[in-house]
Amino acid sequence: MAKMTLEELRKLRDSKKKELNKRDVADKNIQIIVGMGTCGIAAGAKETLDAFLQELDEKKLTEKVMVTQTGCMGLCYVEPTVEVIMPDMPDVIYGKVDAEVARKIVRKHIQGKALVNDHIYDRPAADIVE
Ligand code: FES
After folding, report:
1. C-beta of residue 96 within 8 angstroms of C-beta of residue 51
2. What confidence tens digit (pLDDT) does each residue in 100-126 have?
3. Protein residue closest via CA to atom 2 of ligand 1
4. From the alpha carbon of 38, which atom of ligand 1 is closest?
């Protein structure tokens, strides 16, 4: 392995710090939880997670939104699955969330406060309103 210069190490540290900040929980009241069980990963959950992180970064939302991962949510048939929890919105579990849908969830659900109806696979509360 090639040796790195001090400057290269600093750049690497700064870029990793930025990535870690996106996963930090302080002062974040919106949660995106990506199912990363075996079934989720096989269905592309890693690409989904990456798409969320990238879209949140582009929309400058990383200060408000925490992205975490969990195991299987018991919905193998609609992986990748993602739970979104945010104030003034019902908790929702979305299914079949590929990278494109992940970006749509950021724009429509997180920014627009509207549900992405065609990807809702679990409604934890009966009070879901559009
Ligand atoms: S492993 Fe996916 S439903 Fe259990």
Report:
1. no
2. 999 999 999 999 999 999 999 986 545
3. 76
4. 1
